[in-house]
Design brief:
The chain is an alpha+beta fold. The chain folds into 2 domains: 219 residues, Aminopeptidase (3-Layer(aba) Sandwich); 105 residues, Alpha-Beta Plaits. Strands 1-2-6-3-7-19 form a 6-stranded mixed β-sheet. A 4-stranded antiparallel β-sheet has the order 13-15-9-16, covered by helices on one side. Helix 1 runs antiparallel to helix 3 and helix 3 crosses helix 7. The radius of gyration is 22 Å and the shape is elongated. The chain starts with a helix and ends with a helix.
Length: 330
Amino acid sequence: MNPFELTRRLMAIPSVTGTEREIGEFLLSHLGQLGYRVERQHVAGDRFNVFAFAGDGRVMFCTHLDTVPPATIPVREDNDFLYGRGACDTKGIIAAMLEAGDRLRRDGITNFGFMFLIAEETDSIGAKAANTLKWNSDFVIIGEPTRNLLARAQKGTFILNLQVTGRAAHSGYPEHGVSAIKNLLGVLADCEMADWGSHPVFGKGSLNVGVLQGGQAANIVPPQATASIMIRTVEPRDVVEGKIRGIVSNRATMEIIGASDPLLLHIVDGFETTVVSFGSDAPHLTEAGKRLMIGPGSILDAHTANEKIGKRELMVGVELYEKLVRKLLI
């Protein structure tokens, strides 16, 4: 099965986070038929990580099985692109990794393996479970859509929910109520205006208000309001947490959902580099060796209704994966 055929086949299997079992079973069977030694690691419910080894696994290819919703986008292609959910994030990357593995084995190189993990799009429980195992690998190549540039750094994340409680009243007499929406908007404005730091490698920190909810009806002063925020961080977690707590103070209730520090990644001479602002499983794979990140496709196409990956870019990704493993094994 060539990389384009495999990408199409993988995209046809829905695997929104929480429903990775079917694609996991497909890959276990496919990798076994290709002659790899395969293993599954139970993680939660009927969900599992997929591991496969050509030999002793000094270098591990790693990416995730899950996608964001909707579960499927009609799979199609034209002369230049493959389209569908997971095209670049990361089913095309899986196909590129497997093709690189076949090329390496044909030349007698077997010191590599694969780690295909669940739940990267939410809480990374697949990566956290994999990280509890004893790995003999020296390097782990994490596949994400970086336009085939080797990521030298990944920004951190700080995710939180804010809740403000007001007092309901008739909208004709707003002076008798307290608008939770108005008060929350004041907090959010201060968050937006704050300086989230800058770093010579990571660049500038940024904040996004991703969800805003509140109120009951147009004729009621809103008694509650909530917001979900993600900060792409370039400073240590404790610094970021101190800033946000200082801004919010006692004006809202704050719930921290998750956080990871910015991360410097391993780089190799001869590869163009970049810095990525998106999250990945990389912070959770501390026990699998030095972490690298590279893959075909653009993050700007990921999570969109028109997700795609360039055919030529996918094949360049195959060549880069093969080249990278050869350099790492020197």
